[in-house]
Here is the input.
Amino acid sequence: MERLEKQFFDIPTLQLATALLGKTFVRILPGNRVLKGRIVETEAYLGEGDEASHAWRGKTDRNRPMFEAPGTLYVYFTYGCHHLVNIVSEPRETAGAVLLRAMEPLEGIWFMEQQRRSASASNLMSGPAKIAQALDINRSHSGSDLFGVEFSLENAPPIPETHIGTSSRIGISRGKELQWRKFVIGSPHLSQGRPS
DNA sequence: AGCGTGATCTTT
DNA sequence: AAGATCACGCTG
Here is the structure.
């Protein structure tokens, strides 16, 4: 299916979190190896007013990409060992991003298995840091976008509303009351989540 | 259930 | 300059 252009990403963050479900994330490595995954779980993060967001206190060196144009990538490093990948939303100078939390591996599975040593098929990208590891994404990609060679998003039919679940975001201490996690109900590739 | 591991941000 | 926190994954 066709590649999604900038206008696709230019919708409110919460809507984008839903619209991304089912779409195919495409990563092309140096050497033209192609990796693909189907997005099955996302979370929305805003700026001011969303205390769980990196951007709620304003722009810093790290979160700068969150203030860039829709379709930019925001990647950061946390817990001393994990990279997490977000797709930026909202117009320039307004913070917003959608965290990619889980994907169904579609193509390049052999490579992903190499990247993730102890993983069975359904575990390859069933968590936000696993995605970054499987697809070989790190901080150097923060600020890139989905409109070049390395990264893109392929269209796919929308997921029917009845198959989309909603919950609190996972692993945060503030903003728990907001139901800003979206996922494809019944997918075997969802993240395991963290209690409370 | 516990902990690693380091960047980032806030407070002194 | 020091301390707290952290959008997590793995082992036990």
